[in-house]
Amino acid sequence: MALHTLTIASHQLEFQLPVNSPITDIEWEAGGKNVIPLGCRVGACGACLIKVKSGLEALNPRDGDEEAFIEVLGYTGEEYRLACQCLIRGELAIEIIG
Ligand code: FES
User: Fold this and answer.
1) Is 90's pLDDT higher than 80?
2) I need a surface site. Which of 1, 17, 19, 77 has the fewest CB within 10 A?
């Protein structure tokens, strides 16, 4: 199975995830620690807000609900994502905001 590297630039951490995994799966690799803050896990609380530093094309696209909620949180730009809505499909580097 192909693995992709998720780099969390703000924490200087790297994780390997299978293609199409939710990036929040790193909590299993991190021994149950919430490296990415999580709340609702369904795109409704904003706890998991991230900024994509590189590899934006390696994620599933934002849908309208995610885009609208991120704007409500005060962020514009497609580099802002809710981690709980992201599936990894290539090399990716992020910064945790939430
Ligand atoms: S965990 Fe609530 S929006 Fe992602």
Assistant:
1) yes
2) 1
Instruction: Output phi, psi for 94, to 5 deg.
Output: -135, 165
User: Percent of the chain scored above 70 by pLDDT?
Assistant: 98
Mean residue pLDDT across the chain? 93
Q: How far apart are CA 54 and CA 73, in angstroms?
A: 22
* pLDDT value at residue 40: 96
The residue nearest atom 3 of ligand 1, judged by CA position, is 43
Atom of ligand 1 nearest to the CA of 48: 4
Model's pTM, two decimal places? Answer: 0.93
CA 66 / ligand 1 centre spacing (Å):
10
List the domains of the chain with CATH numbers. 3-96 (3.10.20.30)
CA 81 – CA 46 distance, rounded (Å): 9
Q: How far apart are CA 31 and CA 19, in angstroms?
A: 20
